[in-house]
Amino acid sequence: MADEIARCQTVYKGFGDAGKMILRLVDVLDRCAQRYGGLEKNTQLRDLALEEPKVRLAQGKSLNYGFTVSDELFLSMLQRAAAALGDKHAIVAGCLGEFRESHRCRDKQATGKLTLEDGLDLWQSMRQKAGLAPDFTSLLFAAVLSKLYPSNAHGSQENEGLEHWQQGFCPICGQTPHYGQLYSEQGVKALECWLCGTQWNHIRLQCPFCGIREHDKMRYFSVEGRDFCRVYVCHSCSQYYKVFDTREMADPAVVLSIHHLASLEYDVMAEQEGFCPGSGLSWTVEA
Amino acid sequence: MRITRRSFLKIGAATAASASLSGLGWPHAADASQNRLRIRYTKEFHTICTFCGVGCGIICHVRDGVIINTEGDPDHPINEGTLCSKGSSISNISYVFDEAGRPKVNPKRLTKVLYREPGGDSYQEKEWDWALDAIARRIKETRDATFEAAATVGDREVTVNRTPAIGWLGSAFCTGEENYLFHKMARAIGVIRMDHCARL
Predict the structure, then answer these.
(1) Contact (Cβ atoms closer than 8 angstroms) between residue A116 and residue A69
(2) pLDDT tens for residues A196-215?
(3) Which of B25, B32, B73 sits opposite A17 (nearest CB)?
(4) pTM (two decimals)
(5) From A247, A255, B145, B163, which residue has the greatest number of CB atoms within 10 Å?
């Protein structure tokens, strides 16, 4: 990751300080996970679907894996990540305190566990809080939720069905993508899930969100002189996603999540052009 | 950039809230909101390569009405993103380029019928009706003069209905459907010598 950040600092203008902050954030989350005994003991997948994974994927249904984690670990990670990100942690602490109380009221059996859905709900409610810009909460929750998502969420058995998956949402966790890449000499488009990191191929000229394939409804924009990052916009559903053209890169090992964080200005421009992120991760600075 | 009152307010709001990530070292808010970067929209279109009958899929990138790039379509079942040397250079058939490298429509592109009579040393402009009549008349005359209804094969006579005096060239720059119609037309009038320039 440090290598990729160093590379992005040469590709993207002004990414120097932000790159250091990402390293600090990753370090804080790692140490927090270790303090609670590691993530392997705390996370578990939701029940498997009734159908065989291969059958389910062939039907175009996501396996829809989530996680269950102790509420202390989850809330502690959010709190520490917020502190690592700067002086807004006091507002975050207040939000987390409110959430902890309301969750314990709901948690009748006192399991002390939180699910992925609980995390997404908390994110949704924190978006409304004054003083927290959407880009701040997006970074905070994307970092924590993706850290908590088990890296072994899908085994080799499920991988068998992934090669034919071409839907506009993640085959593993069901989230909609925020970015992707063009790779290989043939220029194949792969989308990547911001939550679990799964990559899957998708049709080049199709909107992943509304599925439309009409040429006149889709365009992409790039910044003059910087064609490496493209923002694909759909005039049918008014949503966008970013695509990094990695075909010209000497080293094919690209960490897309770092490139995404290094190119947030494209997200701001896309929203100024009147498009919403199809993933739901807003990166504007306006609340 | 002309700043209207509405856009001025928008920039102001962005700056006020920028204590979020932009205050922590992310340059995106300042770059995108205040120093508006120059963005360029591009459209992508599917098309089929016109060079031969294989029918490879191509994605055309069009910006401001000008084709700026073409590449193989990775989702096309025939070529799966690959292109031959001719298909790779297909973007060059649309334009010629000036000294600064800007594409423009070829000023020497034929837009009228030009006719040079036998023995003549210059071209004359003609109407399409005249040209089509002349072509039809000459095909008819040549066909009638050289038409063979039957030929002897071994010890028996077979019907051939052909003219050996006319040759017909298809075009790699026509669509597959157009070339199909050319072929049907040539067969219908008895042409047996047909060819096409798609030779890789």
Answers:
(1) no
(2) 888 999 999 999 999 999 98
(3) B25
(4) 0.79
(5) B163
